Structures are given as C-alpha cells and as structure tokens.
User: Fold these one by one.
Assistant:
Number 1:
Amino acid sequence: MPKGGVNAPVPVAAEATPAVDPRLIVRQEGIKGYLGEFRRRLGSGELGSLPVVLALIVIWAVFGSLDSSFLSAQNLSNLSQQIVGTGMIAIGVVFVLLLGEIDLSVGYVSGLCAALYAVMNVTHGMNEWLALLVAIVGGAVVGLVQGLFFAKVGVPAFVVTLAGNLGWNGAMLQILGTSGTVNLSGNDIVSRLYSTIYGQQIAAYGAAAVGVALFVLASLVDAGRRRRAGVPFRPMADIVVRTVVLAVIAFLAAYTLNQYKGLPLALLIFLIVIVLLDFVLRRTTYGRKVFALGGNIEGARRAGLNVAWIRISVFTICSTMAGVGGLFLAAQIQSASQTSGGGNLLMSAIAAAVIGGTSLFGGRGKTWSALLGALVIGSIQSGMNIQGLSNAIQFMITGAVLLAAVVIDSLARRTQQAAGRA
C-alpha cells in the first residue's frame, strides 16, 4: 500500500514539455538566432538564392573591372529591357519545373505567337489590341493541347513538347508565308509596351516607393494574420531589416535608371507579372497544390488533388507566358521572322529558370528565379559583347554556368536527403 494510506496521491511522471516551433526560438534569439539558422540551412543544403546572387556579384565585378562601361547606367538600363522577353518565358518554365517536368516547345511557341500578332495586325489589318489578345490566347491553347496529351493521354512531357518544338515551328513558318518576315510598324501596342520609357525621375522613384510600401503592407498583414492564428510570425525587427534591404536595392536601381533615360515600361510590366504570379504560387491554394504535386505526386494524388487538372493548367500557364515573351522579343527586333523562337532561346529560358534557383527535381523554386537567372545570362552576354567575344565563347560560358547551377542543385538535394529534409 502506498505510504500515507489508500487515498494518498500516486506520484506521476512529470508533464511532457509541449513542443516549441524552432522558428519561434530563432526569432526570440534575434540576430544570434538568425545567424545560427543561416548556418544550419547552409549545412543542410537549403541554399535558396544565395548561389545566384553571389554569381551575379562576381559577374558584375569581373566585367566591370574589365570595362567600366559595363556598369554604366546606359548598359544596365538596356540590360533591364533586353532580359524581359526571355525572362517572361522563364517564368512559365518555372511553373513546369516545379512539377519536375520540362517544356521543350516554349521557344517556338513564342515565335508562333509573335507571328500570329504580326500577321493579324500588319498583314490583315486587325485591331492591335485584338491581335494581341489572339496571340496570347493562341499561346494558352497550345499549352492546353500539350497539357491534355501529357495529363490525360499519358504521353511523357518530354515527348509531347519535343513534338511541339517541331510542330509549332512549322505552324509559325506557315503563318508567316512566303515572305518569311513581317515587320512591325514601331507604333503598335507591342512595340510601345517594349520601347516606352518614363523619363520623369518621379516614375522610377515612385515605382520603387510603391514596391517597398506594398512589401511592408503585405508583411504586416501576414504577421497580424499569423499572430491571431497563434502560429509563428515575423517580428517587427525582421520586417524592418528586410524592408531596408529591399529599399536600398529598389532605390539604387531607380537611381541608376534615372541616370540614363528613366524607367522602362517593359521592366515594370515584367516585375508586376513576377509579383502577381509569385502571389499565386505562395499565397493561394492553387500554388500550394503545384508545390505539393512537384514534391510528391503520389502523396498529392492520395490527398485528393486533381493531378490532371493541375498539370494541364501549369502547361497552359507556361505556353501563355511563352507567348507574352515572344511578343516582347518581336518588339525588341521590330519583326516576326522565320528565326523567331529559334537559336538559343529555348536553352536561355530554361537556363534562366534553373540558374535562378528552380530545382530540376521539382517542388522548389519561385518566380523571382526567372529574374535572377535572366540577369545572370543577360549580364554574361552583355559583358562578352562589350569584350568582343564570339558567340561560340558565349555559348560555352553560358553552358558552363548552367552546368554549375545543376550541379549545385544536385548537391544541395543530396545534402538535404542526408539531413532528412528532402
């Protein structure tokens, strides 16, 4: 009998300590906690955008030291316009890569949409806005068809889009006809979207201020929502630091653009598209489904997700963005021709997405990868053009950078698996 009689309380084990979210501990420790978390993430292979940011700094430092004109306001402003076409295509590629798939048709889909717009508007006199809509819808239809073959028929995406790479090239040549080239007027809507530059300094600085303000508002709203839900949220100090870093980058970019002509409308549109699609991926149910499908397709299927519909929608988005990118590329050279969508465009778009940090294995990436990757590729090409290097050297160096990005991605994934985080 227990000491003290039958009614004496029986000793019990100490109450279990409730689990604490490690993110709360990190944020409570302040700077020390964040530094420790940063080291832990690096050790477990969670590199994020760090490699591409470091690569971009090295590229700019090297070419800037070889020729000061590389870092001039004129060259950087021109670079910001020139990456838009390829960058738009790369955004769509990011969506497909998140599924762990590939789209080899985006190059000639972009050329097909450019040809549709040019022929409808210039040759047949269709209203420029209607021709623009036809071209973009045409890209969406292409993606829908390819997505149906992949998701419903079961043909591998590699085969479907490889066939599309050939087929849509033929369709583009057929639309262009015997002339082979249709020149844009230079005053049409697509040309204006690409070439318009807001020369007033308030435009660039205003855009930077609006971007920073929206970031702060979104951060505060998200923190408040998480606080009310009783889940970890970013402390005010964290939000302030992130805001300061973003403000420095945004206003430095605005200052640089204002040193030449001003804010290019094409760059502004590019950034708006990135932000909107980033919101779709990170803040909507649809975006979470895309990541879930890319991370574990069997798990997503067992969770009740409509796998076929997600796949079809992703390929539709990819081809739509290819069409948008093709229109900007046509405006850049003021024509749609038999070479539209060819050359190294396909590889540049895929390389931009991968170099920017999107994993080839699916489940990891963001729309900002398209901007970072396009900046890396565009900077390499611009720097080598200034140095007078041949296309052969440019292709070899760009290929080496792409290989390095894939190697880093593979090693990071292997490290994550070893750490039990993949």
Number 2:
Amino acid sequence: MGRLATAALAGTAVEFYDFFVYGTAAALVLGPLFFPTFSPVAGTLAAFGTFAIGFLSRPIGSALFGHIGDRYGRRPVMFASLMLTGAATVAVGCVPSYATLGVAAPVLLLVLRFLQGLGLGGEWGGAVLLTAEHAPERRRALWASFPQMGPPVGFLLANGVMLGLSAWLSDAQFREWGWRVPFWAAGLLAAAGLLLRRSLHETPQFKELAETGNRSNAPLMEVARGHWRLVLLTAGALAIGYAVFYTVSTWALAYGTERLGISRTVMLACIMAAVAAKAVATPFLAMLGDRYGRRPLCLVGCAATALWMFPMVALLHTARPPLIFLGLTVALLAFITMFSVVAAYLAELFEPRVRCTGAAVGYNLAGVLGGALTPIVATAVSGGEGAPWGVAAYLTGIALLSLGCFALLPETLPARVRESESKPETAAAA
C-alpha cells in the first residue's frame, strides 16, 4: 500500500502542478502578454477566463476517462491522463505572446488549457480508485487521502518554481521568458510520474468485475439514469472546497499584488505556507474519518468554512503578511477537513461497476461550480474601495449550499453501514 499510495500521490502532484502553474501564471503575467489591448482588470478577468476553461473540460475528461476506467480498468486511466496533461502543459510554455502571433495566441492558450482540464478530469478518478480499492477497509480514508495530498504538493512545487524565478529574475526577464520555464519543466515531471506508475497492478474489485462479466457497457448512461441525484449532490457538496482553494491560491494572489501592493514574493510565500499546513494536516484528518465517519468531518468542515469567510477577507485586507497567513491557513484547514475524506467517501457512495465514472464526474462537476467561476466572480466583486466583502458573501453562500448537500448524503463508513443494516434484523428477531 505504501508503494501504491506514493505512486498515486506522485502522479496527482504532477497533474496538479501542471494545472496550478497555469493559475499562477494567469494571476501574474498572462493578462498583459495575451490580452494587451484590455485594461489591467479586464486583462486579469480574461486570463482567469482561460483558467476557467480547464474546469469546464474536466467533467468531459472524467466522462471520457471514467468510461475507460469502468470498462478497461483503473490502471490505463492513470497513464493516459498523465501523458495528455503533461504534453498540453509543455505546449503552453511554447505559445508565442499576442505581440508575436496576434489573436491566435489566446486561442491556442484556450485549446491547450482545455486539454489540460481533460487530462486532469481523468486523473483523479484513476488515482483515487486505485488506492481506495486496494486499501484495507479500516484504513481506507487514510490511504485514499494520499492522492488528495497531490494537489497541495503540486501547488507548492508550481509556486516554488515561480517564487524562485520571480526572486532571481528581473520583472522584465520574468515576463519575457521566465514564466515559461515551469511549463517546460512539466515534461520532466510527467516522465518521472510515468516511471513510478509502470509497476502498478489493477485493483481487486475491477478484476472481479472483469472475471464475472459484470462491467458496465455504458457507464455514463448508467450513471445518468440511476445515479444522477447522487452525482448532483456530490458536486454541490464539494463545490465549496474548490471555491475556497482557488480563492486562496489564485484570486488572493492577484488581489494582494495588484490591489494591496504586496510584493509577489511575499504573497506567494504566505499562500505556500498555508498550503503546506493543509498538506500536513490531510492524513491526520483522514484518520479521524476512518474512526468517526466521512459525513461528520464533511459537515464540520463546511460549517467552519461558512463561519470563517468574513474573518478571512478582513485579515487579507490588512495587507500584513502574518495576518494574511493566518486567514488563509484557517480557511484551508476547514477545507481539508472535508477533502481529506472525500476520496474514500465518493468511492463508497458509488457501486463498483460505475464507480470510476460516477465519482470522477461528481468531483469534477464540483470544480465547475466552485473553481471555474470563483476567481472571475471574486475579481469582479472586489473592484470597489474597502475590503472585498462581496467575496466573503459569495463564499459563505457556496458553503451553505454545500452544507445542505452533505446533510442529504448518507454515511458510508463500512462499520456504520453494517451497524445500521443489522438494526432492522435485530428488531425483527426481537
């Protein structure tokens, strides 16, 4: 399990490195380079628009790769998705700017961002199910949380490279060619991820489905017919996690550097420290999910997020790095209280024959609801003077929506499920 979980974590870290490095570039340089005829705010909005395309393509990728995962196995998904995302990311680093290529430059950017999202939409389902379906029942949330540590590791890697380059290079050098280096590095990281994954075996549950001939012929249609309510509830429940993470990692970076006048290095350092704290907390919170259940942690995390959004914005607006770090860290800890257990939770909510499709589509639809629009909406509502309370109100509303969706989902902790199933039999016997 240790070797398998490490390979899954490494792969998701590489995939999310590719995805996050684009978000950081969108916040820092893509607006002036690819939308130079726009005003600064409009250019940032346009850059975040290309950022959002990746989220819109993720559900399509989850349906495409989910079909492969439910028909042909979880293992092929992990290789194909990693190659697609890595190739698209390297290509982004090679796209000439608007000054060289004209309107074709932002169009190419959109196409490559779409392909990035397509690959990432398949990655999560394959990596999570490979660990969740191999894991022992009593430690399923813990082992399945390893792929969930991939996003913060990928984020730290992406922003660490950006931070180093921005500190080492002048602003002119960074805007001219420095921002491209992290995209080119994605090729080496993808190759390393593929090497780590080459010895992984297919999951026991899929082998059983293949041997018994119980695989779904059309998993997406089966999910749409029989599990649509579950998909919508999981998408709504997880939306706040995406909204909080991309508020912290993308919008806060743009707001801090452009509106508050904080240096790029200081803002990146605050955000990276908060993300590192989130990564460290993930396995410990997952162990609580194995002990007390998945649903209680999700409800607590959602409620904490709803209560913290206004204090977070107030602390950010002070422009004081220690207070910014505090505000962002508490927000991410509330978020990971939910997301530390969702890998096991979604795997247990869907039956094995459609699990890869159902879990991945629900997870990536949440990205559209919570991640795609959040930087755009947050930038739009934070244009006036004073603290951006509209951002806090927007995030609080999404948190309450997610809280309602979690309240409608059942508990899936195997011990609790067996206990609830045995109660009617005990009552009948009495």
Number 3:
Amino acid sequence: MVLGHDEASKALEAPDPERRAQVRRAALASAIGTTIEWYDFFLYNTAAALIFPQLFFPASSSYAGVIQSFATYAVGFAARPVGAAIFGHWGDRIGRKTTLIITLLLMGISSAIVGLLPGTAAIGVAAPVILVALRLIQGIAIGGEWSGSVLLAMEWGDQRKRGLLGSFAQIGVPVGLVLGTGGMTLLSATLSDEAFSSWGWRVPFLASFILVGVGLVIRLRILETPMFAAVVKANRTAKNPVREVIKHHWREILLSAGLRFSEQMPFYLFTSYVLVYVVAERDFSKTFVLNGVLVGAALELAFIPLFSRLSDQYGRKRVYALGALITAVIAFPYFTLLTYGTSTVVFLAIVVSMIPHAMQYGPQAALISESFPTHLRYGGAGLGYQLASVFAGGPAPLLATWLLHETGTPYSISVYMVLAATVTLLCLAALPDRSRKDITDDATYAR
C-alpha cells in the first residue's frame, strides 16, 4: 500500500513548531535506529574475530578457523545489496517510515537468536548453517536500513544542512561500535576466558531485544518526510522503483559504490581485522585491542558531524577526497606502527586511523543520496551504498588474512588499501557534486 494522501498532507502542511519537532524526532530516529542496527552488526564482527572460530569451527586449524569465521562475516555483506533492492522498492513505494520499522525488527530479532545459538559441539553442522542464515538476515536488514535512515533526517530538515542532517544516520556506526565493542570489552575484562567464551559473549546479543523496543517507540512517533509526501501527493511514485533507478541511474549507482572503497574497506581492517592481527602478531590482549577500537569509535562521534558540516560549507567532494588521500598516505605507516611500535604507539595507531574514515563517512550520506531523484532515492542510494559491501567491506578481513598468510608481510595489505583509495578518487572525480543544488527539483537529475 502506498502512503496515504492524508498522511502526506500532514507532513506537507505541518505548522512550523510541529515541523521543527519532526526534524528533531527524525534526526533522533535516524541516529538511534542505525545505532541499534550497527550495534548488532558489530557484535557479530567482534565475535567473528574472537569467539566463532572455536565455537562453530572447532575442527579447523587456527588459520582455517579464522578464514571460515570471516567467510560467514562476509556473507552478511553479500546480502546487503539484496536488502537494499527489497527495501528500496518498498521505501520508494510505501514510504521511509514503515520500511524502517521492518528493518529494525529483522535485525534485532536475528541478532538475539545468535545469542541463543548452540555451538557445533552441541548440535553439529546445523550450528554454522543457522549462523550463516542469521547473518544473511542481518545483511538484508542492514541493506534496507541505511538509505531510509539517511533520508528520514535529510528530507525533513534545512536543505542547506543536508550534510550535517544526513550524518545523524552515520553517527549510528560509531555509537553502535562503542556499545557493541564496549559490551564485549567489559565482559572480556571482567570475566574469565572460559566464562567469556562459554556464555559471556551472548549477553550483548540478547540485549538486542531491549534496544529494538526503544527504537520502535521512537520510529512510530515520526511522520513521513515532506519530500516523499510531495511525491505521493503528486502521484509520482514509481511502479517499480528499483528497476527504474537501475535503468536510468546505473552510472550513479556504480560511482557511489566505487567512492566507498577507501572508506569501507580500511574501516573493517581498522575495527575487525586489527583484532586478529595485533593479538596474533604482537601477543597483545584482546581487551587492549578492543579498548583501542572503542576509543577510536568514540573519537568519530565528534569528527563525523564536524566533517559533515564542513561539507555543507566547502562541498562534499573536497572533504571526501582529502579523507581518501589521507587513507592512502597512512596505509604503510599504519602497519609499520602495528608491527613494530610500543603498546602506546599501537594504541594510538588504532585510534587515529578512524579520523580519515570520519572525513569520508560523515559527508558520504548526503553525497550519495543527493545523486538520485526523490521518487527513486531510497532504492538508488541504498543500492549504491550497499553494492560496495560485496567488493570492499565484506571481503576485507578475509583478503587481509589471506594476503598476510601468502606474502608473509602486512605491507601487502597496505597495497590493498592504496588501491582502494585510488578507486575512490577516480569515482569521486566522475560523480557530480550536488551539495548546493535543489534536490527536490527533478531537472537537477536530467541527462
């Protein structure tokens, strides 16, 4: 069912005080919703590095267990474009609000079930099979979540602040990382290794039930965005939005995916693979590395809105390109510091690596979303954003593990990072900068 005209009228005709309240609610719903989604997603990432190799692949060697665990991790990324297509269709048909409620429920319930799942020792091969199925559901949910959350805030607020408003959804990533990694860090530090491995890691997953309840209360209180409501009132919704956006905006989808390479691939090296590398190569404790990731994520809470606001002032592409260049520049020094640095140097390297990520991730929400017209924006932005997951984010820890094993040097991973930054800069150069254009005007997207 398409959004009703009555609800569309409420969004379009809201008085100024109500409109300002809706802007605040939309920003809050955007941030809290993505926080919950990414909390669940990052819990899995951390568990994939620290727990799942032994629990679900106990017969494998240490190297093979890590490879198998990160392979299940990658499955979630492969499912994300599928989620973007499914929920992109409905987000551009029935509206942003309803679609986002469904994605929240899917993610929360599947994550809680992971916390209840017995290991291979208890139920045999069914354990890793169910784990993969749950990871697929997580991937589909997160694939449908991102673009809707961005549009919820960006399409409600002041259009001169689209970069800042879109970044409320991006803030959910470091907050989710702080909560998810923080929960794991606290339990890892306070429980014995045996207790943490047997039951302690499950507690943060089960907490998803509570978080989903909070998210639902907030999302049920918001109206549909005025931009999409105007499309509904004018009877301009597309019959098949995903097919139409692929047909007419395939170039923007591919460029949006490509510009994410230097943001997404290094991010999963900085937050997930680093847990394996530093613990195995330097014999630092899991808690030490988790604390570094936790502080780095907290740092992003300040830097994501800062760089997003700067993108409103100076243009998305300028800020984004600088972040990609810095990522390429630090690729070799980063692994040098991790491999040879003192504990203080290693900790600082883990923390500071998050700054160039924030320079890209903050402005990215508006940069990608502005590339598509309103009636196709949910699907187009979602497909572009999530397609990168298949080629950049998902394979990153898996390929890094393989590269180190095959070459014997972490600098092969540095080369991988530089290549990712090169792809980003080329795609960024080809994508128009619509930072200051009227994105409610379809003439903006005319070819």
